[in-house]
Amino acid sequence: MKIQDRTFIISGGASGLGKGSAVEIIKAGGYVAILDLSDEETGQALEKELGPAAKFFHCNVLQTESIAKAVQGTVDWVKETGKPLGGVIPAAGVGLPAAVLNKKGDAFNLDDVDFVLGVNLRGTIDLIRQSAFHLAKVDPEGPDGERGVIIMVSSSSAFDGQYGQVSYAASKGAVASMALPMSRDLARHGIRVVAVAPNLFVSGMTAVMSERVRKNIEATFVFPKRAGNPPEFAILVKHIIENPMLNGAVIRLDGASRLSKIFAIMCRRDSQRDMV
């Protein structure tokens, strides 16, 4: 599918992987609707930075009504620009590390669990279902009759979840497991679905890590031995959009990293605050 002159909805698009994807799509001639919790002043600054191909919409993915308002705003913007919807990238995500039982034997807070699952899983599903309703009405493109693509953000934690990551791993594992059945659900509408599972990437969420934990994670990478950068995530997003044979798949983007039990113990001792 061509990116040029198509509009893509990106939640969490004001920073990190979401913003990186927005920049890459605009470079390829596309338009982006950026859904984010940032305030209007930040949103306006972002629009100025990215140019006329970007439009900011304040959105809280925990609230169905907020998503509906942002999606409808995007649809109205599409009518103004004449650039039809091309896809959805639900990149909004959070992590609140906590062991099921802490060192005192107390159970973790279910409100925190609900928050992580709400943003990472429910928020992803809600944005997709509301956006797909409009995406399915777009005129099909090319010999395959493709209308668009959904690119979800999972994590290496879906496969190598570490100490304190029960909620985060559960949410990202669920995202990974949705790729195939969702692709089957939406196939009749000419919509593809792919999930990307990154390991440590430079982002606001990983910025709270201690330097020691960050270095320990980077040491598990086979090559290159460093954290990923948003543009490296974004070029994969671009390829997924443009390659019609990518569908129903979960793609690991992790420098061949596989986190071990020993690493989990190191993280526990270091009392890490967050990890991808």
Based on CA inertia axes, which overall geometry fits? globular
Helical residue percent? 40-55%
Major β-sheet, in short? 7 strands, parallel
Q: Radius of gyration, rounded?
A: 18 Å
Which SSEs are present, and which pair or pack?
Layout: E1 7-11, H1 16-27, E2 31-36, H2 40-50, E3 54-58, H3 64-81, E4 85-90, H4 110-135, E5 148-153, H5 157-160, H6 166-186, E6 191-198, H7 211-219, H8 230-242, E7 249-253, H9 261-270
Parallel strand pairs: 1-2, 1-4, 2-3, 4-5, 5-6, 6-7
Protein name: 3-hydroxyacyl-dehydrogenase
GO molecular function, one term: oxidoreductase activity
Pfam families: adh_short (PF00106)
Quick overview:
The protein is an alpha/beta fold and 276 residues long.
Protein described:
- The chain is built from nine helices and seven strands, in the order βαβαβαβαβααβααβα.
- It is α/β, with parallel strands linked by helices and 276 residues long.
- The protein has a single domain, classed as NAD(P)-binding Rossmann-like Domain (Rossmann fold), CATH 3.40.50.
- It has a seven-stranded parallel β-sheet with strand order 3-2-1-4-5-6-7, sandwiched between helices.
- Strand 1, helix 1 and strand 2 (31-36) form a beta-alpha-beta unit.
- Helix 1 (16-27) packs across helix 8 (230-242), helix 3 runs parallel beside helix 4 and helix 4 packs parallel to helix 6 (166-186).
- The chain is globular and about 60 Å long.
- Mean pLDDT is 91; it is low at 270-276.
